[in-house]
Structures are given as structure tokens and as C-alpha cells.
Amino acid sequence: MTGQQTLASVNRPQESAVASRAPLESSIWSYLGFALSAVLLLLVVGLGVVLVVIPRATGATPLTVLTSSMEPGLPPGTLVIVRPVAAEALRLGDVVTYQMESGDARVVTHRIISIVSSSDGSRSFIVQGDNNSAPDDDPVLAEQIQGRLWYAVPYVGYVNNVVNGASRAWIIPVVTTAVFGYAGFMVAGGVLDHRRTRTRAADAGEPGAADATRVGRG
Hints:
- The chain has 4 helices and 7 strands; from the N terminus they run αβββββββααα.
- The protein is of the alpha+beta class.
- It has a 7-stranded antiparallel beta sheet.
- A hairpin with a 7-residue loop joins β3 and β4 (107-117).
- α1 (2-58) packs antiparallel against α3.
- The protein is elongated.
């Protein structure tokens, strides 16, 4: 009888340690999953602010750099936010986006390297890509200027291309719903795991269960 009691008392702490380790590992994975979902949510919200909210609120235009003419500062794939500006406010060194021809939808984003003032008070601009060896072919007229570079975000331009256009109507709601749903799922899972951990800990710490067994056998 004494040998059985001694063996049970030796094995029980080991079993308890294994049982307590499993909830701990589960809790760690739950916290990691919650942290990942929070980071993902912040990333999507941040992209939404950069791609949609700020440009729309300020009248700016998000554009994607497609060529290497402005490397290394603005490599292909960079998102540039261009804000309207009066031609009189432009200075040497400003990066501007201009229409290749007045009324043409095609645009170029290059740096002003020279400003030419005419006798009638009008201005034109000589522009050049930072990575180009020569200026653009023709001077840029004031009416061709679409805006001046406000800020740029690397690698996000291609996301902007996908989000803009006909796909915007369904991509943003779907992605937002999915991310918020995933975050909610992870939060709920973390709460349930925490409750299970507390329940298991309480069960493992209940006094009298092993003693009652010994008394009954004695």
C-alpha cells in the first residue's frame, strides 16, 4: 500500500508539469496569432489611408512609377502622391508630374532642372529624370503640370494599380471584411484559450482528489 502511494506521488507532479506545459504553449501560439492579425490589420488600414483617404481628402493623385528614369530615389513600383500646385510656386529641384501633351492622359514624373521665363510672364520648365543622361525633349508648359510630388511609398505602386479602376469597388470591401473577420476570430480564440488555461489550472490545483483516492484504498 505504501509503495503504491509513493509511486503515485512521484508520477503525479510529472503528469501535472506536462499538462501545464500544453496550455502554456497553446497560449503562446494564440498571442502570436493575435499579434500577426493586429499587424496585418494595421497594414491594410495604413494602405487604405495612403492609397485612398489622404489623396481623396487633399485632391492629390496617387500614381505608380513604371520606369527606372527616377532611380534610385523613385524606383519602379513606387507609389507617388502628386498634389496640385500653381506653376508660380514651382522651384528648381521640384519633382513634378506632367502630361506629355496637353489633354493627354499619359504622364511623366521628372525633376525640374531649369525654369524659363518668357517676356509675357509665362513660365516653362526643363525637366529630366534623375537616372537619365539628358533632359526631356521638349520644355514643359505650365498647363501641362499636373502636380508636384508630395510623398512617395516604395513597393506600393503596384498595389495601387490593382486597387484603382473597376476592381476598387469590390477589392477594398472584401479585403477589409476579411482582415477584420480574421482579427475578430483571433481575438475570440485568444479569449477562449485563456479561459481554458485558467480552467485547466484550477482543475489541476484542486485539493483532496488524490488524498480521497488514497483514503478509500486504505
